[in-house]
Amino acid sequence: MSLHESSASFETTGSHDAAASFRRVAEPIIPHSEAKQLERVVSTSVPPLQEVHEFPPAFRATVDRVRSQYAHLYDLPVIEHADGRRSFHNAKLIRHHGINLLFVKGDFVEMSFQHGRLLSDEIPHGAPPQSAKMVDNAVANALGAGDRINNFVARLIHRWFTRPIVASAIESTRRALGYVPALQEAVSMSDATRVPVSVLVRALFNPETMMLLARMGNNSYGQTVNPLAGFAAPVSCCSTFAAWGKATEKSDLLIGRNMDYPLNGFYDRFPTVIYFEPTARDALKYMTFTSAGIHTAGLNAYNEAGIFLTSHIVPTTEMSSRGVPVFMTANQVIRRAKNFDMAIEIFKDFRPPSGWAYLLASTKENRVATVEISNQDVVVRETKKQHYHIQTNHYLTPEMRGRHLFINSSVTEDNDGRYIRIQQRLQQAYSRLNVSEAISILGDQVDPYVGEVRGLGNTVGVHTTMTSLVLDPANDRVFVATGEGPVSHNDYVEIPLSGTCRLGEFSTRSWDVVRNSSFKTEHPEKYAALKLFIRAKRSYEIDNDVRRSYELLKEVVDCDDSNPAYFFQLGIFALKNDQFKEARRAFEDMFERPYLTDQLRRLGWYYRGRVHAHLGNADVAINDFKRVISDDKTDKKLHAASQRAMRRVKTFGRCRLARRSLSIMMQQSDMLRY
C-alpha cells in the first residue's frame, strides 16, 4: 500500500491496559477511616521543599501565599489502587495504552499541584528539565568551550532575555487580570515535584528566547551580523489541518495535528492528556494534549465550548523581550473563551515576545482560522469559501507575510513543503476524508519537492513529532498517538473530549485503537535510518558529543544511502571532527543521490568549496563558489557567504574553516550561518 493511501485500521480494545509500574512518590499519613478503602499508599522519601530565598525574587511573595493557603495539600497521600489507578486529593490518574490520562479538579493552583504530585516520579525525568536546557545546550554546541565559559554565556542570555520576558509577563498579566495565575501554578507545580521553578519557567519560555536570539543574529536581509546567530536554532515545526463540509466523508469537521518539538526521548517519554475541571464560577472544563509536567494549554487544547487551539512558532522580525509569552495567553483563551470572537479578543489583549500562528477552531460554530501574531500585531486568516484550512510555520496574510525572519532557504522550503503536501493529500481525499485518512496524512513521508518517500526531508511526518492527534468533535472524541517519537507512525488511541468525559464511565466502555504502521512496514530501511538519525541528533543537541554523532551518521547512510540530506550532515560532522577528506567524500556522494533538492545542491557546492579552500586547493574552491553565486535562486545569505569565501581565497590562497562556524540545524539539514 502506498503512503498516498490510508493504511490506518480500527481495532476495538478494552478501556486501559495493565498499568506500568510507578515509583513511590509521597510520604503520607493515612487517616484510619480511609484505610479499608485504599489498596496501597505510595510512599518514599522526597527532597525537602526549597527555601523561599531559593526562589527567584519575583516568586517569593507567591511562595508564601501558596504554601499558606494550600497547606492541606502538602500532607495528603498519593494512593495507588489495585487496578493501577492513582488518586490524590480530587484527582485521578489512569494509564490508557501508554498515555497518562489525568483527571484534575479544583481551582487552578490545586489542579497544578495535583498534576505535579500524581506524576512527580516522571516529571523530573521528562520534558521540563530537558526543555529548560535547550538554550544552554545550543550555547555549548556553538561555542565548543569549557563548562565555565558555556555556563557564563548561558547565564547572560537568560539574564538578557528570559528574565525580561518573565518580568514583562508578570506586569502585563497583573495589569489585565489583577493577579498572575501563572506564578501561583508554577510555585505549586514546583513544590509538588521538587523541580525548581526556574526550570519550569525556562521549559516554557525557551522557544521565545531562542527566537529572540535568532532575530539578534540576522538583519532583515538574512545576513549574519553577530555571533549570537549561532547560539540557538529556533524551534520551527508543527502542522495542523482542518477539513469539513464537502471535503470530509460525512461533512463533519475533522482536525489533524502534529506538534513537533526537538526533545526525542524526553517529551515523548511520558505522553499525557489532562482533563481539567475548574471549580471556579463560570470556568470552562478543558483538556490539554501534552507531556508530564508541561502544565499549559498553549500547545494543543480543547474546551467544553468547542474551542480548539494549536500552536505554530513563526520566525519574525517583530520581536521584543517585552511581551507576554504566548502560552500564557493561550491558557486564558482556553479557560475563558466561549466562542470564536471571544477567543480572538483575548489574543488581541496581549503581545508575545516573538512570532506565532495559532490555528483556532470553534467546533460548535463551524469557524476555522489562523491567528497570526507578532510582538506588534495580530491578524486573523479565516477560511470561509473552501472546505479545508492548513497551517504550518509561516504567516500567510498579506499584512504579515513581509514580516518573516529569514533563517535559511531550507526553513522556508520545509514550511512550504509541509503545507503543499497536506494540501495535495486533502485534495486527493476530497469528499472521503475520515479519521483513518487524517491519520495517514499526519504520517505522510513524501517530500513534494522531489515526489519521493524520505525519512528526513520536507515531509508532514517529522522525526520530532511528539504529539499527534485527530479531533472528531461530531462524535465527541479525539484519537491520540502513542509511543515514542516520531509518534505519527504509531497507533492512535480513542479518548473522549472534555465536557463529554465522565471518569466513572471511562473504564466501563471500549475504546477504538487505529493501527498505523505503513511507513515502518513499507520502508523499513528508511524508518531504521530515521531512528538512528534521531540518536545522532540527540548526541549532538543534548549530549554535545560530535564524535558520537559522526559515528552514528555513518550508520545512518549505511542503512539508507538514498537520502542526500544524510550525506550532507555526515559531511558537516566530518568537518566538526577535522576529517576534511571524509567530508569532501560525503559531499561528493551527496551529488550522486537520486533526489537531490536545489538547496542541498547549493549547500554541497558551498561546503565542498570550503573544504578545498581550507586545504589550499584555490582553483577548485573558487569554481564551487562560482556555482553557488551564479545560481539565481541562491538566497542572499548563502550568496554573501560564498562571495566572502571566494574573495578570501583569491586574496590569501585559502580560507580556513573553523569548527565553531558550523552551526547546523539538523532538522532542516542546513545551517544557521555559513
Question: Could you characterize the architecture of this molecule?
Answer:
With 674 residues, the chain is α+β, with helices and mostly antiparallel strands. The chain has 3 domains: 32-230, no CATH class; 233-269 and 298-523, Penicillin V Acylase, Chain A (4-Layer Sandwich), CATH 3.60.60.10; 525-671, Alpha Horseshoe (Serine Threonine Protein Phosphatase 5, Tetratricopeptide repeat), CATH 1.25.40. It is built from 21 helices and 24 strands. A 12-stranded mixed sheet has the order 2-3-4-5-6-9-10-11-12-13-14-15, covered by helices on one side. Strands 1-22-21-20-19-8-7-16 form an 8-stranded antiparallel sheet, with helices on one face. Helix 16 packs antiparallel against helix 17. The chain is globular.
* Spans of at least 5 consecutive residues with low confidence: 1-7, 12-38, 220-225
Annotated CATH homologous superfamily of the largest domain? Penicillin V Acylase, Chain A
Number of domains: 3
Describe the strand arrangement of the main beta sheet, using strand numbers.
Answer: 2-3-4-5-6-9-10-11-12-13-14-15
Q: Sum up the overall morphology in one term.
A: globular
| Average of per-residue pLDDT values | 88
Structural class: alpha+beta
Instruction: Examine the secondary-structure arrangement and name the CATH architecture of the largest domain.
Output: 4-Layer Sandwich
User: Which CATH class of the largest domain is shown?
Assistant: Alpha Beta
Helix content class: 25-40%
Radius of gyration: 25 Å
In total, how many beta strands?
Answer: 24
Tally the helices: what do you get? 21
Strand content: 15-25%
CATH topology of the largest domain: Penicillin V Acylase, Chain A
End-to-end C-alpha gap = 41 Å
